[in-house]
Amino acid sequence: MATLTTPGIPAPVPLEVAISAHARRRGLLGRDGIDGALLLSPAGAVHTLGMRFAIDVAYLDRKYRVLAVRTMKPGRVGRPRPRSRHILEAEAGTMERWGVRRGAQVTVHDR
After folding, report:
1. DSSP label at 62?
2. Which ranges of 27-89 would DSSP assign to H, the alpha helix?
3. Which residues are within 8 A (CB) of 8 and not within 5 positions of it... i.e. 6 or more apart?
4. What is the rounded CA–CA span in Å between residue 26 and residue 18?
5. Residue 56: what are its φ and ψ, rounded to 5°?
6. Which one of 1, 9, 53, 68 has the largest count of C-beta atoms within 10 Å of its C-beta?
7. What end-to-end distance do the CA atoms of the chain give, in Å?
């Protein structure tokens, strides 16, 4: 499993990577939560239609720098972000704890 780090995370965070179109469409649908985060790549927008829990969404550029972070309740449609190439999803509240905010650099480590 891959991991992610930022300067604000004391230890690497487990990361699932959704690179196929099917995996990106499914995202976190049908789940009750996630241990760590999900990276949708490539992606520029998300929705929470049919989701069971609120999520934090970080829009990343091609170099994994955070462009914006939003918390989305279930049943919402997010606006596309210009320059967004990847999207990081996690349970609501976790991005703040991890220090994932606009301008932060996210590093993805493959295993």
Report:
1. T
2. none
3. 98, 99, 100, 104
4. 9
5. -90, 140
6. 9
7. 6
